[in-house]
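Structure ticket #2291
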Amino acid sequence: MSPPRVHVISDDPEFDSEFISHLQAEGFATTYLALLPISNNNNNNNNNNNPDITPLLHIADDLETGESYAVIAFGAAATACLDFYSSAQPHCCALVAYYPTAIANPKVKFPPNLHTTTHLAASQNFAPAFPSYTYENVSPGFAERDLEEYDRVPASLAWTRTLGTLRAAFNITVDLERVWEEHGGLGLGSAANRKDAAATMMRTMVADEPYVNHVPTLTGGIGQRDLFLFYRDHFMPSNPPSTAIKLVSRTVGVDRVVDEMVVSFEHTQAVPWMLPDVPPTGKKVSVAVVAIVCIRGGRLAHEHIYWDQASVLVQLGLLDPRLVPKAMKERGMERLPVVGAESARKVLDESSEPSNQLLSSWWEGDQQSEDGARMPLRPKQAVTGTG
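Resolution: structure written out below.
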């Protein structure tokens, strides 16, 4: 079976090569078409600057019955494609439009078998009735890396939505869980040969600038070399033998896996990725961790790992909730709003710890029921913050 065909279209002779390479990595046979303005077409002396849609008329000429293609169009070309594909076109199964310069008919109804998504900058002030997403504080061009307007965060969000549209149109499913599991998840298990283990983890990552960011401590790395050294020298050998992971939930999206888990260990050795330069304390730690993993073309592109560092420090005795700065004590503050292992326990079992114990108004009875009646006083529970 031939790979699904995607045509990227704009009104410029050249286009962002990285955008195209990412589509190819996802298994799409990708080609670029330029809809040049009619006034720039040497075969036509018309002064009209609208794109010449002639290439669209022949885009499906070589397709057989049952074969289909998708279009991703940008700028003025997106405007032309929204108009052209408002009428049923043979073989076209998806249309993704990035920041069209105009929308001739915002209430247009596309053919029912055509999957559509439109990405707009908020400044464009369009309000189409068909599926669209608006991105704040960006300009048209935000999704193209070769333009000054490129903005990495909304571009990534738009990419995920575009990829979801294409996969739905071509009826493609991807087993992202398998990719994450083959990488080794968080890789917190013990490794007899840390060099081989690190190399295995790197083989499951993209070649161009993969990165890992442990958000609370800024540990990790960017690029194949730095990541390999981090895994080999600072991550694989650093996890105590007592380390255990309990998966609480897993959410699988278009190109991301989100794991919610509880990580526990006895701090019998240095753990530089979580506790840089902190000597072993021998104390037990249990902390909720969230891993957001982006997968591109069957390989990991990046990982964002989050946890509550204050909870970890409280459990190790490095942060005392009772040590309130003098200026805040004088204003009535009695303790820092942090807890220890209680937070992880409540993730595993919501009824294991009472809620709102850090809210003085809650246990002083300053609450009302839905009908406005005063609710009974709630006894304050002891919150030690040490677990």
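Closing remark: The domain at 5-170 is CATH 3.40.50.1820 (Rossmann fold).
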